[in-house]
Amino acid sequence: MATTEATELFFSVTKLFQSKDIALRQMVYLVIKELSSIAEDVIMVTSSLMKDMQPKSDVIYRANAIRALCKITDASMLPSVERFLKAAVVDKTPSISSAAIVSSYHLFPAGKDVIKRWANEVHEAINSKPASLVGSASSYLTSFSTSSSSYNTPPSSSNINQYHALGLLYLIRQHDRMAVTKLIQQLAGSSRGGFGSSSGILRNTFAYCLLIRFAAKILDEDPNSRQPMYDLLEGWLRHKSDIVNFEAAKAICNIKDVTSKELYPAINVLQLFLSSPRFTLRFAAIRTLNKLAMTHPTAVQPCNLDMENLITDQNRSVATFAITTLLKTGNEASVDRLMKQITGFMSEISDEFKAVMLGFLSGVLRDEGGYEFKRAVVEAIFDLVKFIPESKEAALAHLCEFIEDCEFTKLSVRVLHLLGVEGPKTATPTKYIRYIYNRVILENSIVRAAAVSALAKFGVSVEDPEVKKSIKVLLTRCLDDNDDEVRDRATLYLRLLDEDENAEKYLKDDSTYSLAALERQLVQYVSSSESAEKPFDLSAIPKITKSQAEAENLRPRSFDLATQTIGVSSPAVSGIIPATISTASRDATPTPGIDQQQLYTQQLEKIPEIAAFGTLFKSSVKPVELTESETEYVVSCVKHVFNEHIVFQFNINNTLNDQLLENVSVVMQPESDDIGLEEEFVIPASKLAYDQPGSVYVAFKRTNLDECPLGSFSNTLKFVVKDCDPTSGEPDEEGYEDEYLVEDVELVTGDYVLPTYISDFQGAWDKLGEDGQVVETFALTASKSLKAACTTLIELLGMSAVENTGTPQSSSVHTLLLSGIFFGGVEVLAKSRMTFSPSTGVTMELSVRSSSQEISRTVISAVV
Questions:
Q1: CA 280 to chain centre
Q2: According to its UniProt record, which protein family does this protein belong to (predicted)?
Q3: What global pTM score does this model have?
Q4: Is residue 214 within 8 Å of 170, Cβ to Cβ?
Q5: Any residues with CB less than 8 A from the CB of 474 and at least 6 apart, and which?
Q6: Distances (CA, A) of 251 to 219, 230, 328, 840
Q7: Could you tell me which of 293, 396, 763, 833 has the fewest CB atoms within 10 Å of its CB?
Q8: Residue 717 forms beta bridges with which residues?
Q9: Where do the DSSP E strands lie in 520-615?
């Protein structure tokens, strides 16, 4: 808002001071506070605010008037309002007292000399006795009732003004250590009998927490006060409030040079909190013990049993702190158990926990242990390398020391492979070559062969020609090895080092074909009589990274992927489908976690009408939700793109236990008649019982094969409803027709792009050239970060982020690289250069390249 506009609004609002409406008057104070830093001449409203501060004014207005006045008050005006503020500080109404104290706290930097004179009044506010009926801290909140101008406040029980007053009093006396010490002893001494009893001066738990922090600061700064302050902290461990107990225990744990004897009572309190039903207490206690275990692990050991019970805590932060603390305090048997659990949640914990682990894990590697134990430790270090780039070099150094004396061949091979992949990417890659070559000299043939492969990767990946020359010398020595595998590898890599193109292809290429997609396409190829007339098209197989392939192999495979017999036509193609198989396949929903594309293909092939459409190009990565999960009918949609057809699969779940749906179909109406699609058929779901999902298929044929139809469809479910008994499920004989409108479904450009992976983006980018390039600039004002912009762009284009560009490393500048295959097998690449500013959002220059400028323009139009 401009200054002129703010000023006009400010003075217009001040006219409402005459209003009798309580809610409207409350809003006036809020607007004044917000506009005070923008508008001009705001000082003109001072007299009105000072009038509302008077004791004769309504209680509901006084606190807000004080806050608003202090917002527009500067150091020069402070003496003129000093009398009113001092009176408000000791007011019997807590809301007024708190407003004055908090406002004084914020004015302190500008008017120290004036506010320091109020120490007696602030001290009186701390010592004030609670009245039976006084205004509460919430009394300034409106009742939004205009029936009467009077406002009765409920009695206060929070005593929050003591917390505010104590903070201001410390601010006034913070440079007088003796005065602060006297204040602590005075306020603590009043409740020495019971620490928190109602007879003490302090009745607010937050005020006690503040007092504990002051005591801990004095204890840290003044050695002579150590024992008296410790006695106070130890006494507060028995306070009736959990928050005070925890604050005192935390303060004791943070004492410099604290002894085990001094820690004992604090640890007892924290140990009790570990079994608390409140997860906030469990989290606070385990985090404090985790920090303490770094310097005093033996003192924390009595809590090991309670911490082991927290490993399975449903709160992941609590479980993470528990396991990292036990790694410091546990014995050999417990650490062995813990190591097997680390890799299961490594990707879910934050970087600070992972950094704590690295030092511990490196020490464990040097200890005695069996294969499973050492394998678990190595796996954990591998995860640290993967998830924390900052710890990579330190982790690799520990692994190098480990293989110097490793008795397990499998682990040595895995470490050597990791060194070959990650070593060349470090700032000083040459320091790892010595460790790798030592394996060639000292190890068995399997390890020697792995070491030769790792050396070759250094020769290809490191830019320094001297390194490449040294690697050639080392590989030449391996030609005399007595094992033929080692000699063969050395010969191959020496040849590849002289051929840059082949070296890039065989040594640096991190991509591989999706085996599930390759299997599916091969089965379809050999099962179809028409495919024998043309060669198998390998370019249609999407590529993924090797890490993605490994992750896919580790997933549970609960679905039989090999359902077709090579050389025999499938039942779907021949049209012979048993009724039971057909019904089950049409109602099935693919199991997540395997290859969705393959599952959808196998599902669709069992439907003769759809199997006739040929090879499936792409299915939606995830279903589009068309209803909320709480509605009576939960509907989602999956889009399947074939060569000449588009199939919409509607997955429907009936959540009403007193209804049976029969003959369920979907009526799809495109937003435009010339969308380029005509409906071919609808395959309805015969019936949908309670909580038994089913599917409806709607197939469209493309009228123009040279264009990719884009547009939106409105969708309406049509069905016959039969009421049924919720307990027995028996439906009525008669039903009635009904319909249900769901959200629209859109065909977007991303539906025609298959994400794929390439290892050498720049090489593929240069190969496509600028002939088919389209460049546009966009302003993504809705994106609140570069990460959000990357996620949005990947979803819109339907492409795959390559070279680890999917997650920005900087918060202000990033380059996103994308790869995909457009409908028809056309390779498409995109490069997006982004900048982020909190005021303007994300500004992006998007470049798209393909063999056809028209295709590039189609892809880039997805962002418009």
A1: 20
A2: Belongs to the COPG family.
A3: 0.47
A4: yes
A5: 433, 437, 440, 455
A6: 10, 9, 21, 44
A7: 763
A8: 666, 740
A9: 543-545
